[in-house]
């Protein structure tokens, strides 16, 4: 991965009538980067991807692909290739013919074409299945054909539109590993559209979280999970306990707040922070709260009562009511120590780390017209 | 419950009903080929022995051959015209959402449900009012109006599942719009188009009312057959001709259905989820 920008999106907006699908989106994606566009359905992520491919024309702005302004170029003139959500395998062609589809226009010698198709099939581990018809393939195999058909064109950017959403969970996890390995092997820029936060976290170098046609935050998976900028980003990336806290004081890089029963907490101050009313929202992830057993002691403890319990196999989700807190807290506890046997109503103690709190900005109001 | 009613319950009523139904439907049609090979000028039992002479007389019948030629011209023209119009309509209906879509579909399909004789009379009035000579051309126009709904039904079922991303994938892989139509769109829906051609040709081949009203001095086969029925002696020949038309129709419709199912499989498979 180099620092050179492969895709530059500058102030791109897209209207459908008066409906605003994209609202002044700007971002830059590096060469060889695995970049994800993450958000709920209707957030504009697919519109943005299709704008890069050339299937949508933004109303305003410009998209540079490898430095070339590309909005005037049709899809067949862009150095991008796409893996469609439905895979779009040509039903009248076999696997090898599907993969060779785009090569036909390049007028390669038959040996060269055969070699490239063979290499592409090897790459997605479909060697020997070249003569299969599309309807003889499993979902995972169709996915691989779609990948090979796009990669064989040696695009500068590979666009993936929810490519794993049609697969069952186990296959999806296998394909995630494969996709990541493949991207490292070919070294080209991948842009993935997904609504699955785990997929985005597991695969990406960087993630852009989108809401209402806008980008809410762009960061590495770890940063976006641990330091979400706004309440919505925090919520979309996973479980989060939100608390209303009173600002006690502000320093250059830190804010100290009174987080109700959690006491005074020092928080990293985000850029451009301004507490309008002296109150802010802070959050702590459920897994950062830890159950204390028998003689366990921790520097920061709270007592509470189990209000609800849900068994998830390897972990148990607990809802714990704490006196003095408006909302009960969510916790995730591994089942190694018997959290799954705790009865509802049991009195428990929990430990927390004050450094695990994040300060969350208010989300801008969403307006799509 | 008496023993009698208990026994009644054991008679498999439903299969009996189905058997009677099919007998009623197909027995008369099966008699057609039987009598066409019967060595007698009358259609009565017992049969008088096997012969193919009635088929022989057809070959020498120049008026009949003329009518067959007319039917062929009309059939091919009608199937081409109605399929082309059907392709446009089916594509619009399956691909786009527009105001008045339901109404448009309804109006295209309406000739299916209108009394054919009324359609024929009104077409005849218009054709005469416009001062157009009755000919095979007017038959072609009339039957096309009548065949477009059939063409559209067959084509819509073929186009319905056509995944738009197939065309997008083709553009994305560097193909032009014309190339995409030639290499993706056409091959995927080709069986449906052939199926539509066969269905409309078959319908045109045995369509009588419109042809009778609009053909003027150039009869098609059904009109010719109608004319022959007045002569008892010609009946076996008509039966032989009818048998040929029957077999041809069944073959074409079977082929059409096979092709229609193939497109359906193709287009649906393309975006079938695992």
From TrEMBL, chain B:
Cell compartment(s), UniProt: Cell membrane
Keywords, alphabetical: Cell membrane, Membrane, Transmembrane, Transmembrane helix, Transport
Transmembrane segments: 12-35, 72-94, 106-130, 136-156, 188-215, 235-259
A Pfam family: BPD_transp_1
Highest taxon of the lineage: Bacteria
CDD domains on file: TM_PBP2 (cd06261)
GO biological process: one example: transmembrane transport
GO CC annotations, alphabetized: plasma membrane
SUPFAM superfamilies: MetI-like
Stated family: Belongs to the binding-protein-dependent transport system permease family. CysTW subfamily.
Name this protein carries in UniProt: ABC transporter permease subunit
Lineage: Bacteria, Pseudomonadati, Pseudomonadota, Alphaproteobacteria, Hyphomicrobiales
């Amino acid at each position: 991965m180099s620092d050179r920008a492969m895709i530059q999106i500058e102030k791109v907006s897209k209207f459908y009538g008066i409906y605003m699908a994209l609202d002044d989106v700007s971002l830059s994606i590096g060469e060889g980067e695995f970049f994800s566009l993450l958000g709920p359905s209707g957030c504009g992520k697919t519109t943005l991807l299709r704008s890069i491919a050339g299937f949508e024309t933004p109303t305003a702005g410009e998209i540079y692909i490898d430095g070339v302004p590309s909005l005037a170029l049709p899809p067949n003139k862009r150095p991008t290739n796409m893996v469609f959500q439905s895979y779009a395998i040509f039903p009248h062609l076999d696997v090898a013919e599907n993969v060779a589809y785009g090569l036909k226009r390049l007028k390669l010698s038959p040996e060269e074409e055969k070699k490239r198709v063979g290499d592409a099939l090897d790459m997605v581990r479909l060697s020997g299945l070249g003569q299969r018809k599309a309807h003889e393939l499993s979902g995972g195999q169709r996915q691989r054909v779609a990948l090979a058909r796009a990669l064989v064109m040696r695009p500068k950017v590979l666009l993936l539109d929810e490519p794993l959403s049609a697969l069952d969970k186990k296959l999806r996890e296998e394909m995630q590993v494969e996709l990541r390995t493949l991207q490292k092997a070919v070294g080209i820029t991948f842009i993935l559209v997904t609504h699955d936060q785990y997929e985005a976290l597991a695969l990406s170098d960087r993630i852009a979280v989108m809401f209402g046609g806008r980008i809410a935050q762009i960061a590495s998976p770890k940063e976006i999970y641990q330091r979400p900028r706004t309440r919505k980003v925090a919520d979309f990336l996973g479980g989060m306990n939100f608390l209303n806290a009173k600002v006690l004081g502000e320093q250059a890089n830190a804010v100290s707040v009174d987080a109700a029963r959690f006491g005074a907490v020092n928080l990293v101050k985000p850029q451009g922070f301004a507490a309008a009313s002296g109150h802010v929202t802070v959050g702590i992830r459920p897994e950062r709260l830890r159950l204390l057993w028998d003689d366990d002691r921790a520097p920061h403890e709270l007592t509470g009562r189990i209000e609800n319990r849900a068994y998830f196999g390897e972990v148990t989700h607990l809802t714990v009511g704490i006196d003095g807190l408006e909302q009960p807290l969510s916790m995730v506890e591994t089942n190694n120590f018997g959290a799954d046997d705790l009865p509802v109503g049991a009195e428990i103690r929990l430990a927390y780390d004050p450094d695990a709190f994040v300060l969350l900005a208010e989300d801008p109001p969403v307006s799509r017209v | 419950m008496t023993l009698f009613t208990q026994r009644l319950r054991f008679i498999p009523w439903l299969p009996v009903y189905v058997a009677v139904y099919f007998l009623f439907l197909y027995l008369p049609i099966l008699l057609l080929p039987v009598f066409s090979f019967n060595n007698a000028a009358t259609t009565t039992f017992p049969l008088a022995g096997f012969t193919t002479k009635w088929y022989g007389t057809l070959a020498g019948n120049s008026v009949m051959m003329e009518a067959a030629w007319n039917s062929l011209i009309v059939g091919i023209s009608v199937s081409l015209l109605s399929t082309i119009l059907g392709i446009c309509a089916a594509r619009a209906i399956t691909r786009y959402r527009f105001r008045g879509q339901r109404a448009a579909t309804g109006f295209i399909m309406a000739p299916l449900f209108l009394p054919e004789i009324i359609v024929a009379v009104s077409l005849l009035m218009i054709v005469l009012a416009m001062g157009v000579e009755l000919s095979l051309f007017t038959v072609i126009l009339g039957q096309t109006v009548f065949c477009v709904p059939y063409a559209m039904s067959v084509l819509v079922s073929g186009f319905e599942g056509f995944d738009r991303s197939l065309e997008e994938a083709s553009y994305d892989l560097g193909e032009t719009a014309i190339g995409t139509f030639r290499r993706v769109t056409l091959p995927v829906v080709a069986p449906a188009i052939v199926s539509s051609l066969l269905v409309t040709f078959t319908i045109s081949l045995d369509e009588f009312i419109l042809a009778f009203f609009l053909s003027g001095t150039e009869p098609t086969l059904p009109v010719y057959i109608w004319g022959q029925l007045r002569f008892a002696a010609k009946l076996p020949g008509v039966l032989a001709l009818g048998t040929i038309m029957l077999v041809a129709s069944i073959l074409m419709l079977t082929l059409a259905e096979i092709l229609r199912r193939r497109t359906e499989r193709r287009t649906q498979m393309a975006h079938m989820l695992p």
